[in-house]
């Protein structure tokens, strides 16, 4: 059986420029070259060779719910929460309590917020 490693996540977005700006500003991701094609799909680095691909689909219906999300980890959530607050980006715990973090059963602190297309992003301290 082959082994697998995570490579990238791809999201359909209404406005790729708006989404690129959001991810660069909020998560401070660096844009990298789309080496796969000459399309308008744009790539961001998640570090360690992992990528976020933003695929323009201006006419697509994008449906989301919090259970469908991607998660990034950081050692200390507090500075990131202050960053979100400075950008006036609402966040919540798993139960949708506004501007509140959540501590999971295993002791890991986490928050959730949405990008301009409604995709949910979890940031946690599971490093």
TrEMBL record:
Q: Which residues form the VOC domain?
A: 5-126
Listed GO MF terms: dioxygenase activity
Record keyword Transmembrane present: no
Keywords for this protein: Dioxygenase, Oxidoreductase
Keyword NADP applies: no
- A Pfam family hit: Glyoxalase
Q: Which PANTHER family match?
A: GLYOXALASE_BLEOMYCIN RESISTANCE PROTEIN_DIOXYGENASE (PTHR36113:SF1), LYASE, PUTATIVE-RELATED-RELATED (PTHR36113)
The protein's name in its UniProt record: Glyoxalase/Bleomycin resistance protein/Dioxygenase superfamily protein
Q: What is the lineage of its organism?
A: Bacteria, Pseudomonadati, Bacteroidota, Flavobacteriia, Flavobacteriales
């Amino acid at each position: 059986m082959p082994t697998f490693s995570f490579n990238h996540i791809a999201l359909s977005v209404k406005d790729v420029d708006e989404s690129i700006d959001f991810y660069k500003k909020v998560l401070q991701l660096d844009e990298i070259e789309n080496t796969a094609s000459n399309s308008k799909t744009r790539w961001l680095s998640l570090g360690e060779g992992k990528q976020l691909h933003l695929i323009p689909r201006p006419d697509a219906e994008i449906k989301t719910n919090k259970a469908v999300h991607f998660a990034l980890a950081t050692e200390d959530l507090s500075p990131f929460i202050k960053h979100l607050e400075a950008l006036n980006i609402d966040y919540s715990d798993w139960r949708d309590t506004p501007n509140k973090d959540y501590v999971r059963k295993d002791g890991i602190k986490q928050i959730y917020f949405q990008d301009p297309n409604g995709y949910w992003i979890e940031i946690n301290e599971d490093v």
